[in-house]
Each structure stands twice: as C-alpha cells, then as structure tokens.
Specification:
With 300 residues, this protein is an alpha+beta fold. The chain has 2 domains: 3-114, Helix Hairpins (Orthogonal Bundle), CATH 1.10.287; 175-299, Jelly Rolls (Sandwich), CATH 2.60.120. The chain is 61% helix and 13% strand. The chain is built from 9 helices and 8 strands. It has helices at residues 3-37, 46-61, 74-125, 130-146, 150-158, 161-176, 187-196, 272-281, 283-299; strands at residues 198-202, 207-209, 217-223, 226-230, 233-238, 243-244, 258-261, 265-271. The strands form 2 sheets. The protein has a 4-stranded antiparallel beta sheet. It has a 4-stranded antiparallel beta sheet with strand order 2-7-4-5, with no helix packed on it. A hairpin with a 2-residue loop joins strand 4 (226-230) and strand 5 (233-238). Helix 1 crosses helix 2, helix 1 (3-37) runs antiparallel to helix 3 and helix 8 packs across helix 9. It starts with a helix and ends with a helix.
C-alpha cells in the first residue's frame, strides 16, 4: 500500500468516527427533548424512561415508526413532526454519502477500463496483429497500474517544488530501509543513495542479470515482478519494494543467478562506483557493507 493511501485511509476512519460520535450525541439530545415534552409517567424508573425515549427517537429518525409510542400532547406532536423531517434529511444525506463513496471507489477502475476499451477499439480499427495486441495490452495494464491515483497526483501537483521533492524522496527511501545493507543508516546517507538511483525499464521475459556476468550494480524493484533462476530452475519471485544484486556492491564478483522480468518492470539501479563514493562519506553504510560481507563469507 502506498504512503498516500495509508494517510487517506486514516483520515477516512477519523471522519467516520467523528460522524458516528455526532450521531450518538444527536440521538441523546433528541431523546432528552422527547422525555421533557412527553415523559413516561407509567415507567418504573428513570432508566426505563430514557430507554423508551431513545427507542422512540431511533424509530422516528429512521422513519420506521412502529406506533407503540405516540405523542399525547400538541407540543409532542409538533416535536414528532420536526424529528420526522430531520430523519428524512439524515436518511437522504446518508444515502448520498454512501453513493459518493462507492462512486469514488470505482472511479479509478472505471477510468482504467475505459482506456483499455479505447485501446482495444484502436487496435481493432487498424487491424494490429494479435501478438502485438497482447503485448500492447500488457504494457498498458502495467502503465495504468503503476500510475498514482488522482488523489495522490493532485496532492503532489499542489505541493511547492521543495516539498514535492521531499515527499518523493521519502517514498523512494521506504523500500531502502528494509534492505539489510541500508538498515540503520542515517537520513543523510539514504538521501544520497536515493539521489544516485537511476530508473530503468524492462519488458517481460528479458534478462536483467545473467549468470557469469560481472556484477557492478544493485537493482530495486519499483513496479512489476521478476523471477530468479539458478541452473534454469526458478528459485523465487520478487515484487515491488524488493531488491536483488546487492552483493555486487560489496566487491567485484560474477553473478550466480539469472534474473528475468516476469512482467513490465520499472527498476532503480545503484552502481558500485556511486555506492563506493557514498561509503567514503558515510561510515555507517561502510560498516554495514563490511558486516554483511563478513556474514556472507562465513555462510559460504
């Protein structure tokens, strides 16, 4: 889940809690009003009277109105009509809110669906070969999947350039912090690493790394999926936020596995030369590299 989606979900939950609390307070106040106007002389105690008042308020607001509790005075009937009108307004507002939520939820998928349908019509009109159609559709699906939704893009576009740069830098740093090589590194160190990352793109079924090659870079998967093979046998699949080839940063060595893109992939690349330059400035990264190298040598 993306950073902006998490923020959006938290904000939505807070709004729902606030609305629910307001609803409970409103029911309490309306119940007290009914109790003061009508009262319940035949109730055995105050708690029962309050319970009946809440029961009347909820059945009236929700327009159910069983009729077992009815107003006996003119002021009671006026109060009941006002609560009925309020209930209709609340009911309409709730329906509108739910409808808006469902529409917003499906908006992005509908936009993507419309674009894919337009693409399909375009390819049919120009009689694009089926094999090429399949590749185009896969790429378009990849492109739509990786794009930020409208809420995220709107926030980024409205931010000043300085703040926008900071937010994008933070998003890029998040997966780095999960990599053993960069754990517990300072923010300054991670910022320099992010500044050196270069984005590359691979089509499906392309070799990203080949066995026997000299390793000179690490790859961080930003979008898509890759598969790692040893002796032509699939070992593991990696997805967004995972890295591979980081051992090449620790010293010159040949690759011991093949890495092949399973789908369209966007990756960030950190070269060994850039990594060495950063290590010279930041002792914490250098110490991490030495500790990881020693542990790998012992394991070997």
């Amino acid at each position: 889940m993306s950073f902006f989606k998490k923020i959006s979900l938290i904000e939505n939950k807070l709004v729902y809690l606030k609305n629910f609390g307001f609803f409970l307070v409103a029911i309490h106040i309306l119940s007290l009003g009914w109790f003061l106007i009508e009262g319940f002389s035949n109730s055995p105690d105050l708690l029962t009277s309050y319970n009946k008042s809440i029961y009347w308020t909820i059945t009236t607001l929700t327009t159910i109105g069983y009729g077992d509790i009815t107003p006996q005075s003119n002021w009671g009937r006026v109060y009941t009509m006002l609560v009925m009108l309020m209930g209709v307004a609340v009911y309409g507002a709730v329906i509108a809110k739910v409808s808006s939520f469902l529409i917003q939820k499906d908006k992005r998928s509908e936009v993507a669906k419309e674009k894919l349908e337009s693409l399909k019509s375009f390819m049919k009109h120009y009689e694009i070969p089926l094999s090429v159609q399949s590749e185009i559709k896969d790429y378009y699906t990849h492109l739509l999947g990786k794009q930020a939704n409208e809420f995220e893009q709107q926030i980024l576009n409205e931010l000043p350039s300085g703040l926008k740069k900071q937010v994008l830098l933070h998003i890029k740093k998040m997966p780095l912090k999960r990599i053993e090589l960069f754990k517990n590194c300072s923010e300054e160190c991670l910022n320099e690493v992010c500044a050196k990352l270069e984005q590359v793109f691979f089509e499906p079924n392309r070799h990203i790394i080949k066995t026997g090659q000299m390793g000179a870079e690490m790859f961080l998967l930003d979008h898509g999926c890759v598969e790692i093979f040893i002796n032509e046998q699939s070992i593991v699949k990696l997805e967004k936020g995972q890295c591979f080839g980081e051992m090449a940063l620790l010293g010159e060595q040949t690759r011991t596995a093949d890495v092949i893109s399973s789908s369209y992939c966007d990756l960030y690349v950190l070269s060994k030369s850039d990594f060495d330059d950063i290590c010279e400035k930041h002792k914490d990264l250098y110490d991490n590299a030495q500790a990881l190298m020693q542990s790998r040598l012992k394991a070997a």
